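Let us practice reading a record.
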Amino acid sequence: MKGFGPKRYFFVLPAIIFTILFAIYPLIYNVVLSFKDVTAITLIQKNTRFIGLSNYKEIFMDPIFRRTSFNTLMFTVFSILFQFIIGFLIALLFNKNFPLRDVMISLVMLPWFIPILVSGTVFKLFFMDMGLINRLLLSFRLITKIIPWITDGNIAIYSLIIANIWLGIPFNFIMLYTGLKGISEELYEASEIDGAIGIKKTIYITVPLLKPVIISTLLLGAIFTIKVFDLVWIITGGGPGNASHLFSTYSYQLAFGNYNFGLGSAVSVIMILIIVSVTIILNLIRIED
């Protein structure tokens, strides 16, 4: 590399320019917008003045934002919890040799390869008042009246959680399955000699050795889940009556629905700070290990 001299830096220059233009600059500009009065009217009048923390004060007083915060918490916690548990159990199952294992792995990975637009549209059709789920439940007489999966403000967020769990299982599975493949079979054989059988092997051998992979899976899962937008927007659009908004969809609604770009930026900054906080906490746990 010494023979290249300064020319070697040209190899990384495109990546640096791309990062500055499409990551760093938009982030800084978004933070600046959150401290200004930027609406469709002020943009036309060219009067986008600095207003300090006023946008943040207004957001925290907004009942829709409080509902959005609760939705985001529920959506993130339950999605990650069940995605991880189901993905881990499937990974443990497929870590054993049995007929048609590779075919079944392909089926588990299927949700990962389907575009979100298609998956979201299918789930919307499933969850409609006279969609597939209600029809099946009615036909088997498990319910006597339809369940308003996405038309009831109290239920819609849980329907979104179900859809997101299905979409996130393949990621959790492949991460954990790859980690399991890195654990030597000799360790399991030695543990059996010491009397560790069944679930004891999972608790005392698998989980401790898999801890770095588990933390990485939870970290990436948290980042992906907190910023989910397309799935929610396709199925409910944040409705009914703003009842199923997450930070991402509410920020979009404020900015491009209500044309209040300052408030929309404030919500997105809060979302970014939460993601950064979760990342730091999980990384500290991994370092302490």
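A brief commentary: The longest helix spans residues 63-94.
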